[in-house]
Amino acid sequence: MSNIRVKKHVSQRKVKQFVISFARIFFLICICFVVLYPLFLKISISFMSVMDLYDSSVVFLPKNWTFSNWKLAIEAVNYLPTMLKTLGFAVTVSLLQIISALLIGYGLARFDFPFKKLVFAFVILTLIVPAENIMLPLYFYFHNFNFFGLLGSNGISLLGTMWPIALLSMTGCGLRGGLYIFMFRSYFEGIPKELEEAGSIDGADHFRIFRSIILPSASSITVTCFLFSFVWQWTDTFYVSTFMPGNSLLQTQIQGLANRVGGIMSLTPGGVDPYYQSIMSNTGVVLLILPIALLYLLAQRYFVESVENSGIVG
Q1: Which residues are CB-neighbours of 224 under 8 A, at least 6 positions away?
Q2: Greatest CA span in the chain, whole angstroms?
Q3: How many angstroms separate the CA atoms of 243 and 45, rounded?
Q4: With 226 labelled, which of 15, 66, 89, 247 sits at a CA distance of 20 to 30 A?
Q5: Among 133, 122, 90, which Cα is nearest to 232's?
Q6: Cβ(106)–Cβ(189) under 8 Å?
Q7: CA dihedral 214, 215, 221, 227 (to 10 degrees)
Q8: Do 191 and 217 contact (CB within 8 A), yes or no?
Q9: What is the spatial distance between Cα 221 and Cα 171, in angstroms, rounded to a whole number?
Q10: Do 144 and 166 form a contact (C-beta atoms < 8 A)?
Q11: What is the C-alpha to C-alpha distance for residues 185 and 107, in angstroms, rounded to an integer?
Q12: What separation in angstroms does the CA of 212 have from each of 103, 196, 198, 301?
């Protein structure tokens, strides 16, 4: 009887493990489908001809494969020079933002000063308040930028240049800046203070402690925040359209690709086909995310390690 009970218990345990594993795999497949289906659909549409969109039998894969959409999109946005320019912009802004967030996060985690909790509350508030709510005063501020009245009575206009976004990034107020400050502060609070006390006993000042002890230990969280910042800067259209009107960055060029190609095609007899504009719009999105996908494939191992070492979960 005891052997029968043991076998029954083992079989029930295996069934339970199988059900749990199946439910986990099914859930992951559903999540992957929700995430990957729109991307797969855009890639598929980018290779379709207009006849495929009119054909109701075409669902996932095109019947008439064509690379003309890619060729026209690449020529319309001047892809390679525009991509290199956007790369320089995203890297510069991300570096400025991470440096400022690193210093602010360390200061909030390690130093005591008046209204410290209030300052951190304002940092959290930047995560809650949408950027659209403060964009109008920021727009007028940079339109008549005046540093403590040193630039004349009316100041100067920084709109149309990179300076508004650079200044916001250098002061920790850039795109998702509050998130990076929060991440750095949480990370630095987990570092034992004994490390800094040991450095102080050896005669090191705050700057040397920060440079020699804190920075090397914060490499994982720094890489993580930089990658997050780079991806968001690469795909951002709100900030660059507001502060840099008429710019030639890749994200804004892709945003107006369908209308630009539509204007070219409308010069031909018959005008532009709205379905063709849809094809070009999807092709542009694929061209925009293609460099990020390649970057992830090349740096996948480092990205996963940085996220694991930084303690980010969920």
Answers
A1: 183, 303, 306, 307, 310, 312
A2: 97
A3: 33
A4: 247
A5: 90
A6: no
A7: 160
A8: yes
A9: 19
A10: no
A11: 8
A12: 14, 10, 12, 26
Q: CB under 8 Å to 51, separation ≥6 — which residues?
A: 63, 64
Tokens of 181: 């400050």
Q: What is the residue whose two structure tokens read 């495929």? A: 52
What tens-digit pLDDT sequence spans the chain (314 residues)?
556 665 666 677 777 787 888 888 988 888 888 888 888 888 888 888 878 777 777 777 888 888 888 888 888 888 899 999 999 999 999 999 999 999 999 889 888 888 888 888 888 888 888 888 888 888 888 888 887 666 667 778 888 888 999 999 998 888 888 889 998 998 888 888 777 777 777 777 778 888 888 888 888 888 888 888 998 999 888 889 889 887 888 888 888 777 777 655 554 555 566 777 888 888 888 899 888 888 878 777 666 665 555 554 44
Which amino acid is located at 198 in the chain? A
Enumerate the β-bridge partners of residue 156: 145
Q: How many CB atoms are closer than 10 A to CB 207?
A: 8
Q: Which two tokens stand for residue 71?
A: 């060729």
